[in-house]
Amino acid sequence: MSFLSISGLSKSFNGFIAVNNLNLDIEQGEFVSLLGPSGCGKTTTLQMIAGFLEPSSGSVKLNGKDITSIKPEARGMGVVFQSYALFPHMTVAENVGFGLEMRGLKRKEREKQIEQTLELVRLDGLGARYPAEMSGGQRQRVAIARALAIKPEVLLLDEPMSNLDAQLREEMHIELRMIQRHLGITTILVTHDQVEAMTMSDRIAVMHEGHIVQVASPYEAYENPVSRFASGFLGKTNSFSGEIVGHTDSHYQVSITGYKTVNIKRRLALDCKKVQVNIRPEKVDVSGPEAEGLKGIVKTRLFLGAFWMLDVQTDLGPIRVSLPNKNIYVPNEDDKVSVILQEQDLRLVSQREGS
Fold it and tell me: Are the C-beta atoms of 122 and 44 separated by less than 8 Å?
């Protein structure tokens, strides 16, 4: 039995289905991200788990107990909101201790718990400050400390890092993940940021139009997406039209339109002939024009620090290439090149819309 079990969860607003028959099981101590674009239903799902929204149907069970109809404050969950929702007239210590006070914890116990929690998030000694006197990263830590102070069974994070700059956000990814592992607390993160989800999660639930389309580890979700949406949303990808013209027990023979027939490993059972062939930019190689491969011309070359990004025009259309910043061949703009697509790096999904 899973620690947190979400079964057949649905939510409609005036006829609009925001979440449709969602099922997800989460183990104790696991970090799971609900990843998807705005409007896909991820925040609505989180609010139903927290108890802020009543489901139209379905159930939420925590450690075997049905909590679907239980009030939010009685669910044993800590929530960190996108806006942090700190009380500006309260000190940091008062903000962190608010939930403890509401639970009737005695003053000495409350002060001890506040001190321990502030130390956990590296804010010890700052309890007398007010939120307005703190940086964005510090305010976020206060919000996390307030959620953790009540020692919740589940921590819910609703895009808590969207207001931070890129460098601070990256630092907080690592810091929050370390705190979560240290406490062993079951955590659900709502985010539209693919890097955030892949950096922090044990598993990612990719959401689209109220459904979960794939649940997998970050590596598996990125390397082996199961649908057009999952492939395109979780990182950049090059896509080509193709048709399955044969198969063996282990491979599909696929004719890529305007190119050639290739053998692609059967990672998904496909019941269609029309397919989309995908390859990530970092899996594409380039060489000089004399080499064997798809001929093209470099239209754009950008230096992005850790890698070079190329856009190469070919008979298959534009192909994006990501080359690591080390001593390798990096062509200039307008250079003729050969683009090399290794069969083991190609992935297949159905061409059908909604897949």
Answer: no
Question: Do residues 97 and 109 lie in contact, with contact meaning Cβ atoms separated by under 8 Å?
Answer: no
Q: How far is CA 276 from each of CA 50, 244, 301, rounded to the nearest angstrom?
A: 38, 10, 26
**Cα 247 to Cα 268: distance, rounded to the nearest angstrom:** 12
Q: Mean pLDDT across the stretch 97-124?
A: 88
Is residue 354's pLDDT more than 70?
A: no
What DSSP character marks residue 133? G
Where in the sequence of the chain do the CATH 2.40.50.140 domains occur? 236-350
Strands 77-80 and 154-158: parallel
Q: Quickly count: other Cβ atoms within 10 Å of residue 85's Cβ.
A: 12
| H-helix segments, 184-333 | 194-200, 218-223, 228-233
3-state secondary structure of 315: coil
CA–CA distance, 339 with 127 (Å, rounded to integer): 58
- Give the rounded distance of the alpha carbon of 332 from its chain centre: 34
pLDDT in tens, 127-136: 999 999 988 8
- E strand map for 81-195: 154-158, 186-191
SS3 342: coil
Q: How far is Cα 267 from Cα 346, in angstroms, rounded to an integer?
A: 11
For residue 122, what are the CA distances in angstroms to 105, 125, 150, 228, 247? 23, 9, 18, 42, 57
pLDDT reported for residue 102? 82
Going from the C-alpha of 278 to that of each of 111, 309, 344, the distances in angstroms are 55, 18, 11
Instruction: Tell me the CB-side half-sphere exposure of residue 85, using CA atoms within 13 A.
Output: 13
Q: Quick one: tokens of 181?
A: 């592992």
pLDDT tens string 289-346 = 999 999 999 999 999 999 999 999 999 999 999 999 987 889 999 999 999 999 999 9
For domain 236-350, the CATH class is mainly beta
**CATH 3.40.50.300 residue spans of the chain:** 4-228
Among 265, 289, 269, 291, which Cα is nearest to 279's? Answer: 265
Per CATH, the architecture of 4-228 is what?
A: 3-Layer(aba) Sandwich (3.40)
Q: What are phi and psi of 77, to 5 degrees?
A: -120, 140
